[in-house]
């Protein structure tokens, strides 16, 4: 039973991974586009980084944990899953609409407080994006619940294609057209590049909503007030957990310009934001894994098989995450060309941010014990403590050390969350994680990374050869230790008999 569930998990992860990893990879085309077209010294990319940080925070608030809550109640009341869905969608949609109306109504004072009085429309456009995204989050959750991974992937990739296409037009085609056909391009302003980034996002997000027309028919089941009350009791700790969790990701970007004020703050934030993008391969893996893992866990029950499967999946996840860490660090001198050379001074944050992302991913995997026993308030407590650690590191050290303190703040915050969730979970709802093996893989990966730094050859070619050999050493050790799994996979692929 557990093996069949794991096969289903890996199958769905491959499809979700296609939309997440390929989509993020295609989206990487925008990083060089932005960093090569928006000068580091202008601070423009710092504005993009900070506004998207606000957007990420508001998305968590507007969805208020309803994605996870929907999965829990849809499995709890399988005969009423359509009513659960419509209740979740109507509640999230109503809150999102109210948020956008209030934002538009009070845009002047809000933009003044946030430092965007010169361009309040930036906040209006991204406010509309986050409201639509919140509404779509429940629609995407329905596709995951129904196991419709292919439609999920298609819509995600369609958004990416639209987004990249319009950005390429704005940054590469429009400037030439404005010179050759000024009458046709009278709307185009070469100095409004940052604004066009937000406008394109709004257009693409709105268009994807039409892909959910069949699912929107389920709104006819209406909103159940009794069910909503039950769902809200379950979800409010998830909201606190989500807020604290997202603050661990974006608090440094939100508060950075307050700790390093003026143009210098936005310039540094732009450099930090660009270099963090290189480390986001870990976020791709985590997101793809999460999309498949939530339905798997909530549908798998609380028995022995479920816990053993969670322990197995944790091990395989850590193996893959550490391989991704080694691969990125091994070829960082190639990956760095994703961004303009003016941003390269911030590359030293990449290993720290990647390890922080691994801690966050492990914390996410550990978090299911309190969700399954309906004690979600533990997540709020852990994340709040982690967020306090991150903010303390930022407040104390950013004014002196700049964005390096942001990277170490995330490392410390996620590390604390991970450790707290593990030790408390071991008492409340223990899962048989093989901790010595996990720590062994961490020691192996970090040891190989240390060797690559220590022996770093002067010539790029020899450096890549050395680092490739070190990555192969990691793969060989893992393959030997997990040889039973590898043999099983090779047999399924008909490579071994």
As residue ranges, the low-confidence spans are none
Estimated helix fraction? over 70%
Biggest beta sheet summary: none
Number of DSSP-assigned strands: 0
Shape: globular
Rg on CA atoms, Å: 23 Å
Distance between the termini: 24 Å
Average pLDDT, to the nearest integer?
83
Tally of contiguous helical segments: 22
Q: In what range is the share of β-strand residues?
A: under 5%
The H/E string reads HHHHHHHHHHHHHHHHHHHHHH
The structural class is: mainly alpha
Give your account of this protein's structure.
- With 497 residues, this protein is mostly helical.
- The chain has helices at residues 2-27, 30-37, 44-63, 66-76, 81-105, 107-114, 120-145, 149-180, 193-208, 213-216, 225-259, 263-278, 281-299, 304-330, 332-335, 350-366, 368-372, 377-401, 403-428, 435-454, 460-481, 483-492.
- The two termini are 24 Å apart.
- The chain contains 22 helices and no strands.
Briefly summarize what is shown.
The chain has 497 residues and is mainly α.
Per-chain topology:
Layout: H1 2-27, H2 30-37, H3 44-63, H4 66-76, H5 81-105, H6 107-114, H7 120-145, H8 149-180, H9 193-208, H10 213-216, H11 225-259, H12 263-278, H13 281-299, H14 304-330, H15 332-335, H16 350-366, H17 368-372, H18 377-401, H19 403-428, H20 435-454, H21 460-481, H22 483-492
Helix pairs in contact: 1-8, 1-13, 1-14, 2-8, 3-7, 3-11, 3-12, 4-5, 4-7, 4-11, 4-13, 5-7, 5-11, 7-9, 8-9, 11-12, 11-18, 11-19, 13-14, 13-16, 14-16, 14-20, 14-21, 16-19, 18-19, 20-21
